[in-house]
Design a protein that fits this description.
This protein is an alpha+beta fold and 166 residues long. The protein has a single domain, classed as tt1808, chain A (Alpha-Beta Complex), CATH 3.90.1570. The protein contains four helices and six strands. It has a six-stranded mixed beta sheet, with helices on both faces. Strand 5 and strand 6 form a beta hairpin. It is globular and about 45 Å long. It starts with 19 loop residues before the first helix and ends with a helix.
Length: 166
Amino acid sequence: MTIEEKNISPSMCGDEEDTTPLTLIRMLVEEKNFSENEIETGLTITTKFNNETVVSRITLVVRLGDRRIMILRYAPGSVVTRTRSAVAAARVLDDSYQIPLTVVTNGSEVEMLDNYTGKVLGRTFADIPSRQELAGMLDTLRFEPFTDGKKRERELRVLNAFDVDL
């Protein structure tokens, strides 16, 4: 089944006119060998602090089996300014554990990060792991929950503050 047969469209990622999310899906399927069923679209995180409700969109989430392993957040502009909110999203999207990897892109620049250490693992699309590479990393990736509610709230506040104008 091709991407077109599944009717994956930019609107599934939150934007009718921007085709970059669709290009990212194609890359993951055609170059990185993920199946369409391993890519989630249309996820959001809603936060409310200081009477400001913010809906943060998660462009894509890659999963293997029953685990979300990597989020990809796309937004125009500087990748550096989007990194902190993307890491916060990966840390709070799933209630049972923090998603270990984040990829941030503006369509041309990329940063891939380890969400536990904050270490930059790559800066090109070629650095995004293939399905096989990601499967090989499963034993070394951490899927730890937040045990401290204050730290989780801090990440939600970061997400709210950074995404207020998106």
